[in-house]
Amino acid sequence: MEVRVIATLQAKPEFVSAVNDALHEIIEPSRQELGNLQYDLHRDLEQPGTFVFFERWASAEALEKHNATEHFKRFVSQIDGKLDLLDIKQLKKIA
Amino acid sequence: MEVRVIATLQAKPEFVSAVNDALHEIIEPSRQELGNLQYDLHRDLEQPGTFVFFERWASAEALEKHNATEHFKRFVSQIDGKLDLLDIKQLKKIA
C-alpha cells in the first residue's frame, strides 16, 4: 500500500537559510531510494520560513528504510534545534 | 505559476461521517474545473477523523475561481461547525 507523507517544518527566523540548505540536500538521495515515488519540497506562500514536503512511498517498509538512511539521519541532526514547528503526517489516499 | 494547496481538516468525533461525505462530494466537480491539475483526498493513518487534501492548480486565478464555485461554497456550508481544526496552506514547489 502506498504511503504518503506531508511534513511541515517551520524554521526559527535565524535558521531559515540553514534549514533551507538541509532540506535541499536530502532531496536527491531520497528520490534515488528504491521505494520513493515522489519527493517534492514546497515553501509556504503566506508564511515565510515554513517548508512542506509531499512524499509518496511504495510501502510502509520503504518509508521505514528511508528513516534509517544516513542522509535522513544527517538531515535530522542538521535541523535539530532550528525549528519552531515540525509536523509529520502519514497518509493514505482515499479518493 | 502552479499553486499547490494542502488543506488539513480534523472532524469533530460526532461529525466524522458527515465530513467524510462532504469531502467526497466536492472531489469530482473540483477535478473537472479547467485549472485543476490534481485533487487528492487522504486520511491520516495515525489520527482518525483527520483528512488532508493535496491540490494542484494551474494558477492563483484558477484557485480563486475554485473558491468561488457553487460546489466549494456548498462544501464550506456542509462542514461549518463540524471541525476541530482547519488548516489551509498555499504552497509553491521549490524542488
Automatic annotation (TrEMBL), chains A, B:
PROSITE patterns: ABM. Residues 3-91 form the ABM domain. It comes from the Bacteria. GO terms for molecular function: monooxygenase activity. Keywords: Monooxygenase, Oxidoreductase. GO terms for cellular component: cytosol. The keyword Oxidoreductase applies. The keyword Oxidoreductase applies. InterPro entries: ABM_dom, AI-2_Isomerase_LsrG, Dimeric_a/b-barrel. PANTHER family: ABM DOMAIN-CONTAINING PROTEIN, QUINOL MONOOXYGENASE YGIN-RELATED. This is Antibiotic biosynthesis monooxygenase. It comes from Serratia inhibens.
